[in-house]
Amino acid sequence: MATLRFSALEKIFDRQPNWQDPPSNNISDYFGQNVFNMDTMKEFLSKEAYNSILDSMQKGKKIDRKIADSVATSMKAWAMSKGVTHYTHWFQPLTGRTAEKHDSFMEPVAGGKAIESFGGGQLVQQEPDASSFPNGGIRNTFEARGYTAWDPTSPAFIIGKTLCIPTVFVSYTGEALDYKTPLLKSNVAVEKAALDVMKFFDKNVSRVIPTLGWEQEYFLVDAALYNTRPDLVMTGRTLFGHSSSRGQQLDDHYFGSIPDRVMAFMQDFENEAHLLGIPVTTRHNEVAPNQFEMAPMYEEVNIAVDHNQLVMDILEKVAVKHHFRVLLHEKPFQGMNGSGKHNNWSLATDTGINLLSPGVNPKTNLRFLTFFVNTIAAVQKYDNLLRATIASAGNDHRLGANEAPPAIISIFIGSQLSAILDEIEKKVHHGKLLPDEKTDLKLRIGKIPDIMLDNTDRNRTSSFAFTGNKFEFRAVGSHSNCASAMVSLNTIMAEQLISFKADVDKLIKAGDKKDDAIFKTLKKNIVASKGIRFEGDGYSDDWVIEAEKRGLANVKSTPYALDFMMDDSVKKLFASHNVFSEVELEARYEIAQEHYKMKVQIESRCLQDMVLNQIIPSAIDYQHRLVSNVTKMKEIFGTGFKKHAEPQMKIIEEISTRIESLQSMAEEMRVARKSANKIDDVALQSKAYCDNVFKFFDEIRYNVDKLEVIIDNELWPIPKYREMLFTR
Ligand code: ADP
Ligand code: MG
Alpha carbon 169 to chain centroid distance? Predict the structure, then answer.
């Protein structure tokens, strides 16, 4: 008997909302209380140390060792005043989550005594045993040295009794082994390029910083049900599960009232996030049952990425307290919406301007159009790279499924802005712009803010959409580190802005007025990037055909999408902006391929285990019952028994056929795995997993799901979709 499943279901009926009071009624009273933020620094640091940190944050200046000592002492004092006993360098290795190794402040001293100590050396640099983090062959494992180094631009924070210091993670030979290092480098690249372009518009700007506002989607499942599904536990998604009679078609979940148990979880989570200075503001139900979304106010990209990594950890920790498990997988349930992480990106200046926000007059709108058009042109040139940066085994199930952005990268900008670009294309010509023409153009672009106000036709099907004052990259996977996408976006924008500036300068040198030169260069880019713009339904089949005509790639599987990273143009791009050396890029490629392989390998093993020791045994149990019933019918009805037993005999037969198929496919899949395992080259191996192992998944699932609907409900060994998604 499948008692495990039913006892799990029974637990749910006893669950109560676990309300946790916030530390105070006003969030502002405790917001950022566990962060060594600017206010705290002012209180705890000497003036000299405070200014040095400020310079580092605002101007990227180095902090000298003496200052680091004094910062460390103050940090320790602050942390100890909050009951902290340990510290850790907190970093983002390429495993995709965060890593920490806790050390105690306690230091034994002579005479069997101890003191609390934490110096500049410990703050600035640590040497974790790094041999078990992915490095793509950069660091020989016997040479297990990697360094973490303090990132003073992201404030330290407290979790539990541990002081966490955000750091980068690099190999002994200086190559990046994490997400933060290239992100910081790409910020430098795009800032420099954007500042150069800003010279055309506003000489008072001295900093340009990318901003990121992410939206995080996730599912919640009761812990008891989760624990009885080996696939959820091992792979984060359901490998089987017949869709329930009701799915998401009623759309009654989206923005519906949040159930109490979930609400209690969300509030608790928000308290924790606010203590850590994460400006979470939005929460709502998503489209699929038991799917939710949360979003903070946008922040500087480096901080936003750190906060997103923290949020994923907090979500998981707080969920446990509420007897939930949070699913960050991109597609935990087939036939339901998947989860993404929308990355809203823009560029902000130190003078408070959002460079992707339409201005109030023609002058500021020319600036807006410059950054707007250059983003489009950058994406057009490097759409394949963007596709590669969002590739993962999980996201493969989401991209291209009919309710997620397709695997094709395209840009939606709305009809009004399209019309303006069309007009520039039409009106700007190679010769000198006549005064009338210029006035006309400027009048037209002067109207952008009005236009934007009623630009409500937001296209939800686009993978990369302009949404009023930022671009929203929607194809990013829900579990991934936002930095991957942001590194690429920053770098391609840097490259594009540099080439834009060079073109404009050339025209000015040849005698054009500045505005004319800008208009002409905009036109050139508008024409060149037309192919990436698409205003229609990105989920439609027509778009797939149209995209192919336009020569846009539609690569559906990760191992092949990753190949774009190895294009010569991409290698050159990253190297020339000092974001990734060729070695670093190759290492990342290998790690991503390896990661894909391992994911599919684990799924395949889990699938096989579940088929062989849960599904088939249950099917046999039920079949046995039918067989003995039919046998007994024969005793009662004699030769005429067939007439009565026919329906049951059909089920017996179907079960037999499905068991046979399952068994033989499981075996074939095992053989395919074995042969893939023998391949040395990691990219070829990952492709073999994709082409030869993964291909069995759907067919196996199909047979299991068919069994699910014919076998006695009492005997089914694992929780069903309707139970995981609808039971409260
Ligand atoms: P939705 O896409 O769900 O309709 P909004 O349009 O309100 O939501 O905003 C989505 C996200 O965009 C929020 O996280 C918000 O902080 C972020 N955002 C707003 N302005 C910017 C900006 N200038 N740069 C980056 N992100 C931004
Ligand atoms: Mg959004």
Answer: 20
